Write a sequence for this structure.
């Protein structure tokens, strides 16, 4: 890895000297790195902190005591509201109304429970009033779609005051409360809707930074390692500058022409922005604070689950994947680099330091049987055509919270989050906790 030598100099004791490149490589594959990344929310927050330069003296400015910077999860939930609105072809005004409503009802915190335990999610929707099941209304995208489906039924909603539209949908005991969030909702809508997902042009130089996939992944690996170990941003920037001086990251050198220091800063910001967006979005769509808290206390299972979650979006490949990560499969998976279900499970638990084998037959016997009432994050769940016959097991997933799991489903799909269905109930064979 291009950055290991420089990064090694600042890891011990938050800035001491470690000169062994091999040691850094070892950390990236387990031990200390795996432990710190077992908390995906913490990793996302650390990466997002790298978007800005380290301490910048700023002139004192008066700010309202009520103005609080949104957390990565709040920003990710806001992005879901905006993208859902755009996906339905609705104008920005719809997103602003939805954002203001969610700010009032939950402060954009999907784990909020109100009204004596009867209202849930971003919009505090009541299952008993026809909004959907508790699982549905705590899915930010579903909750937004349901909110918007009622919004568009309001005659001339676009021309009415925000608070009137929100109140017509929510029927709140505080009908005028939504208006105070309109300015902030407009700001969020404008900022997030205009923010590009790809590397953007430097404001200082006007040069566009275009990193090749190889260079991007190299910097990303070092970024995640650095954030997980608490290495200061400035150290990573200096390390990249050293690599640039050594002729590394050729795509960055070709696409942008500022001085090396500016280019190193731009590389860190660009990669951190993209990884921050990706991690925050994945976490907010899948993990609420209660689930994150459970993950943090689940030992090796937490490490395994965090490793699997980071693979969301990787293609399914029949026979693909193993302890080292995605790989080309066999037969109809030979042309695809990715995971099948058991390959993903093997990879995830290898990150936790546990060998479970690469086939469901060995994984079924890789640990203790766990009753469904005692499931923890990372436990392996098995499904079979005949649940009473382990020889018919055909699928394995990693448990998230007893209602959701991460898995590699089938050819043509990608690693993704799944939910318990009637079919899964019928085919459930049991759970195993490796190690």
């Amino acid at each position: 890895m291009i950055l290991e030598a420089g990064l090694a100099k600042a890891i011990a004791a938050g800035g001491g000297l470690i000169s062994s490149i091999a040691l850094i490589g070892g950390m990236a594959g387990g031990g200390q790195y795996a432990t710190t990344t077992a908390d995906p929310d913490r990793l996302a927050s650390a990466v997002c902190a790298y978007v800005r330069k380290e301490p910048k003296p700023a002139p004192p400015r008066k700010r309202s005591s009520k103005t609080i910077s949104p957390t990565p999860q709040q920003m990710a939930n806001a992005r879901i509201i905006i993208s859902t609105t755009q996906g339905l072809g609705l104008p920005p005004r719809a997103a602003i109304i939805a954002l203001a409503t969610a700010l009032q009802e939950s402060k954009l915190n999907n784990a909020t429970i109100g009204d004596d335990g009867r209202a849930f999610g971003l919009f505090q929707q009541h299952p008993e009033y026809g909004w959907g099941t508790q699982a549905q209304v705590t899915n930010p995208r579903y909750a937004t779609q349901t909110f918007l489906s009622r919004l568009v039924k309001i005659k001339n909603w676009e021309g009415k005051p925000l608070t009137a539209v929100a109140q017509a949908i929510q029927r709140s005991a505080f009908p005028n409360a939504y208006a105070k969030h309109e300015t902030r909702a407009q700001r969020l809508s404008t900022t997030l809707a205009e923010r590009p997902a790809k590397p953007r042009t430097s404001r200082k130089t006007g040069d566009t930074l275009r990193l090749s996939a190889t260079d991007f992944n190299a910097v990303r690996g070092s970024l995640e390692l650095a954030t997980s170990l608490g290495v200061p941003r400035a150290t990573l920037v200096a390390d990249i500058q050293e690599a640039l001086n050594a002729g590394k990251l050729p795509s960055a050198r070709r696409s942008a022409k500022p001085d090396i220091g500016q280019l190193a800063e731009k590389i860190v910001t660009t990669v951190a922005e993209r990884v921050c967006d990706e991690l925050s979005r994945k976490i907010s769509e899948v993990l609420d604070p209660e689930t994150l808290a459970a993950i943090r206390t689940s030992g090796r299972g937490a490490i395994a689950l965090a490793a699997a979650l980071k693979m969301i979006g990787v293609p399914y490949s029949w026979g693909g994947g193993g302890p080292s990560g995605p790989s080309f499969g066999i037969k109809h998976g030979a042309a695809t680099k990715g995971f099948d279900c058991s390959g993903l499970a093997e990879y995830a638990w290898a990150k936790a330091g546990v060998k479970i084998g690469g086939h469901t037959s060995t994984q079924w016997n890789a640990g203790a049987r766990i009753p469904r009432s005692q499931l923890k994050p990372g436990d392996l769940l098995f499904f079979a055509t005949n649940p009473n016959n382990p020889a018919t097991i055909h699928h394995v997933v990693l448990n998230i919270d007893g209602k959701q799991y991460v898995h590699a489903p089938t050819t043509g799909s990608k690693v993704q989050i799944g939910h318990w269905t009637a079919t899964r109930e019928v085919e459930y064979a049991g759970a195993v906790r490796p190690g």
In short: Residues 60 and 269 are 25 Å apart (CA to CA).
